[in-house]
Amino acid sequence: MKLTPFLVKSALFAGLTFSGNWNADTANAKISFSVKGPFGQVHGSFSGLKADIKFDEKDPGGSSVSASVDAKTVSSGVGLRNKDLRNKDEWFNVAKYPLISFKSKKIEKTSTGYKATGDLTLKGITQPVEIPFTFSPASGSGVFKGGFTIKREDYKLGSPGGSVGSVVTITLEVPVKK
Known about the structure:
Distance between the termini: 31 Å
Largest sheet: 8 strands, antiparallel, barrel
């Protein structure tokens, strides 16, 4: 009989301790990008998301995100362009730099949702980024949505100047489950 209160307290503690852990639905996650190209806007995506998400709406300061995508999954809708993006040293060079990763340093509440501040590593170059995002919870699941921009030359993507825009817009939509 004395074990029962201990088990109840242990279960409650475990539930509270792990209440912020979310599993990304990687099959349905959307990681998209757009950049000005020589003939208009170029849109593309990445897949192969792997993420460790600890998020609690009541304690954003105690939350964290560590995520990566497989660079070779880049898709722009044009086969020859995809081949160049994956293989050319001036672009992603996926043989040398197989992962694109983000690791948060701080997550905080904002007037429109939340903001993750952290490091984005692309082609072996790490730069600080801020990712504003929202979280829409639904019993045991939810969706994170966010977006941010990077300067492609900060990551040595493409040649300086030229016909490709300097700013890349990245949008994220990551469904999660407990």
